[in-house]
Amino acid sequence: MTGGPVLWAAVAWAVFLGAHLALNGRWWLWLLPSLLPPPLFAAVPAALLVLAWAAGDGAAGAVAGGALLLGARQCGLVPGALVRRPARPPEEGTVRVVSWNTQHWCQSTDPDPFYAFLRELDADVYLLQEYHHDEFDGTYRLIDDERRLRATFPGHRAVIARGLITLSRLPVAATVETAARRTLRVDLELPGGQGRLATFNVHIPVQLRLISPLRAEFYRAVRTRAGDRAREYAGLARDVAGCPHPALIAGDFNTTAAIGDARHIARLGADAVPLTGRLCPTSWQPRPGLRWWRLDWVLTTPGARVHSYRFRDPRGLSDHSVQEVTVSLTGPGPRTPADTRLRLRPRLHSEGT
User: Fold this and answer.
1) Is 145 exposed, middle or buried (0-12, 13-18, 19+ CB in 10 A)?
2) DSSP string covering 54-90, please?
């Protein structure tokens, strides 16, 4: 093997990577290339580096090595997960939280195993997304399954708005208005007099519609949703910055480490993912052979501490894995001003794009 083809391949990847770093998160159309599986940003230059070594091509090796270093932040690998150990929980006061995108609330699955699975998770707090049905035209239809929901979880209080559900067996201190239209904030009183934890149940809009890329409507949808996503992240940043309590921010962000919006996520709080113990954590398309994307995140702000974090198999009930965490507070937080209580009413929110 000569070094020529390897060098050209390394240069081509380096050019793509340069464009990705320059345009990602800055040009709406680059949302499409950024949907590549993040591990490719490590696997491709690593493979080129091996080929360059085998061919004795030093120039190709230098280009591939540089691309590997520059793309390291895009690959979604978490080396710290190999050495990070779960924090020891307090003797009492730990809360078990589940966050899950339900994939349109058993629209295409049998409700009986769906509800049985939710019960089996046995969480103190559920942050559930996609409490709606897909109309397959870019919009969603709100549903009303509240009677069965309350019958299944008689010990939990349900807060329902914006196609999101927060279920809690802990006392609900307040539900708070948010600037982000796809976020539901519910403040909870933690046991043992720990104080108040603000939970942000998040669902950032997906980047595209599943229609032919040969249609102009496909690109109009990408551009529109890029604007929707930017507004959601800006609103969420204001909501979190204005929250006076320790916060747990969790949900489906429809964002990987390779998407420019990951910069916004990093500013919201501390990522709990090293506690999974996985070098390459993934949460979307849990079927074998397709586990290449992590779209679901758990973040905390100072005062909240995650002790364990894992992804659970959804058993075919959703294309998203279940996020399961245990959390406690490191100290009591201030009380919420009375004028921040929620002015929303359930099921009155548009679920269009």
Assistant:
1) middle
2) HHT-HHHHHHHHHHHHHTGGGS---GGGGT--PPPPP
Q: How many CA atoms lie within 13 A of 147 on its CB side?
A: 0
Q: Is the whole model's pTM more than 0.85, yes or no?
A: yes
Q: Between the CA atoms of 282, 200, 88 and 90, what dihedral angle is there, to the nearest 10 degrees?
A: -160
Unique residue bearing structure tokens 């559900």 = 165
Query: Do 269 and 301 touch, CB atoms closer than 8 A?
Result: yes
d(CA 214, CA 184): 36
Angle at 133 between CA 129 and CA 136, to 5 degrees: 115
> Rounded CA gap, 197 and 190, in Å?
7
What the block records as the tokens of 339 is 């004028």
Q: Which residues of 117-131 are buried (b: 16+ CB within 10 A; e: fewer)?
A: bbeeeebbbbbbbbb
| pLDDT tens-place string over residues 170-228 | 999 999 999 999 999 999 999 888 899 999 999 999 999 989 999 999 999 999 999 99
Rounded to 10°, the helix 40-55/3-23 angle is: 160
